[in-house]
Amino acid sequence: EIVMTQSPATLSVSPGERATLSCRASQSISSKLAWYQQKPGQAPRLLMYGASTRATGIPARFSGSGSGTDFTLTISSLQSEDFAVYYCQQYNNWPSRTFGQGTKVEVK
Amino acid sequence: QVQLVESGGGVVQPGRSLRLSCAASGFTFSSYAMHWVRQAPGKGLEWVAIISYDGSSKYYADSVKGRFTVSKDNPKNTLYLLLNTLRPEDTAVYYCARDREVLPDNFLDYWGQGTLVTVSS
């Protein structure tokens, strides 16, 4: 089983600042990584797939990078609506999908 | 627009069964594989199961294999998850989600709002 590890667990950032979230896979997953955003009481929302392709309607301040085992989600200038929990998920080990444990982005 | 609406959650005793439903609309349900994902209170997301577009292939997480069964009724545009031999650790919000294939990628592009299952005596 591929284990996904996200860091940090909590990220404290001021509005307007840059946020950098990390996700590491226990073995190579090529670029088969998606990112999801989840706000309290809501379902997850797809942000990114293929490690770096933004989903429909996702603002350009969100960007993804990486391949193999190390991935990054960057939010260039945090808006109030971006404070949430972010999950990475691999889909290289089809059909199984594995999520990371999440990174909470909170207001500093 | 794509809509997924789960139902069937509730409080159930350990060892009992429950069937969850996910009503789909706004897309050609018979053309898509579907997932169940769960989230224990205050915890992260855990992938549970996937069923192929035509229902012929099903795969499960090890934690539920042999106890949960996923099925799909394409004429009724409905996805199901039968939860048997429930345990307290199965307590979670259960989400259904659509599988989107944009080769070479597969990801979960639409999610329902979830239904809460509480396993307690």
Can I get a quick summary?
With 108 residues, chain A is mostly beta strands. Chain A is built from no helices and 11 strands. The chains are: A mainly beta (108), B mainly beta (121).
Share of residues in strands of chain A: over 45%
Instruction: Please mark out the parts of chain A with pLDDT under 50 across 5 or more consecutive residues, or reply none.
Output: none
Shape of chain B: globular
Global geometry of chain A: globular
Helix content of chain A: under 10%
Q: How are helices and strands ordered from N to C of chain B? A: EEEEEEEEEEE
Describe the sheet with the most strands of chain B: 7 strands, mixed
Count of DSSP H/I helices of chain B: 0
Span of the ends, CA to CA of chain A: 36 Å
What is the topology?
The complex is a heterodimer of chains A (108) and B (121).
Chain A (H helix, E strand, L loop, with lengths): L3 E4 L2 E4 L5 E7 L7 E6 L6 E5 L3 E2 L7 E6 L2 E6 L9 E6 L7 E2 L3 E5 L1
Parallel strand pairs in A: 2-11
Antiparallel strand pairs in A: 1-3, 3-8, 4-5, 4-9, 5-6, 7-8, 9-10, 9-11
Chain B lengths: L2 E5 L2 E3 L5 E8 L8 E6 L5 E7 L6 E3 L7 E6 L4 E6 L8 E11 L2 E7 L3 E5 L2
Parallel strand pairs in B: 2-11
Antiparallel strand pairs in B: 1-3, 3-8, 4-5, 4-9, 5-6, 7-8, 9-10, 9-11
Report on this model:
The complex is a heterodimer of chains A (108) and B (121). Chain A has 108 residues and is mainly β. Chain A is 0% helix and 49% strand. Chain A has no helices and eleven strands. In chain A, strands 2, 4, 5, 6, 9, 10 and 11 form a seven-stranded mixed β-sheet that branches. In chain A, a hairpin with a 2-residue loop joins strand 7 (62-67) and strand 8 (70-75). By secondary structure, chain B is mostly beta strands. Helix content of chain B is 0%, strand content 55%. In chain B, strand 9 and strand 10 form a beta hairpin. Chain B has strands at residues 3-7, 10-12, 18-25, 34-39, 45-51, 58-60, 68-73, 78-83, 92-102, 105-111, 115-119. In chain B, the strands form two sheets. In chain B, strands 2, 4, 5, 6, 9, 10 and 11 form a seven-stranded mixed β-sheet that branches. Chain B has a four-stranded antiparallel β-sheet with strand order 1-3-8-7, with no helix packed on it.
